[in-house]
Amino acid sequence: MCVPCAAPSEAAASSRSAGEGSLAREVAPPVLRGPVIESATSRSTGCPAYSQTLPREPRSAVVARRLVRASLTLWGLESLIDDATLIVTELIGHAIDHGRLASIRVVVSRHSDKAVRVGVVDRSKVGATRRVDSDGDPPRGLGILLVDALADRWGTEPYRWGKQVWAVLRERETP
């Protein structure tokens, strides 16, 4: 179930009063500027979401963490930032290991007042699986175990041309 975004942050409200652009542009998360990175885009219909296409390389994890952090801050879900940034880092690592093309797409969407879905899309059909034994190999592929431990649920959404590995995190009630 989708819900509207929480009220815009104070920064967005002050820039709106200054007469800058549309609300969608005002609340868009800051992104790393440079020759390799595109800007983040927001979804204008459906569930509130931000996404960004990045190179399939390790340094993209830094930009993905910034996108997740900024999105969760805008939605008032700061308590999820640590786990969500760790999860997106692991999902980026999985896409780097298994993707086929030079780019991947990071998607952060809000499906309820207290829940967010973080996903990474790549062009490989190799699904993510929990690894329980390394069979004597060097420890690799254990990131999905971490995702499994931190997320409320996670999975793989297959596409005809690839997949999205995603995780849902939910804010816990505080006593």
Q: What does the model show?
A:
The structure is a single chain. This protein is an alpha+beta fold. Helices cover 30% and strands 23% of the residues. It is built from 5 helices and 6 strands. It has helices spanning 10-17, 23-26, 60-74, 81-98, 143-150; strands spanning 41-42, 49-55, 103-112, 115-122, 153-158, 163-170. It has a 6-stranded antiparallel β-sheet, covered by helices on one side. Strand 5 and strand 6 (163-170) form a beta hairpin. Helix 3 (60-74) packs antiparallel against helix 4. It is globular. Mean pLDDT is 77; it is low at 1-37.
Write the layout of secondary structure elements.
Layout: H1 10-17, H2 23-26, E1 41-42, E2 49-55, H3 60-74, H4 81-98, E3 103-112, E4 115-122, H5 143-150, E5 153-158, E6 163-170
Antiparallel strand pairs: 1-2, 2-3, 3-4, 4-6, 5-6
Helix pairs in contact: 3-4, 4-5
**Average pLDDT:** 77
Number of distinct helices = 5
Low-confidence stretches: 1-37
Tally of extended strands? 6
User: How are helices and strands ordered from N to C?
Assistant: HHEEHHEEHEE
End-to-end distance = 25 Å
Radius of gyration: 17 Å
Task: Determine the strand fraction and express it as a percent band.
Answer: 15-25%
Structural class category = alpha+beta
Q: What's the story with the biggest beta sheet?
A: 6 strands, antiparallel
| Helical content band | 25-40%
The gross shape turns out to be: globular
- Strand adjacency order, main sheet: 1-2-3-4-6-5
Features of the shown structure:
six-stranded antiparallel sheet, alpha+beta, 5 helices, 175 residues
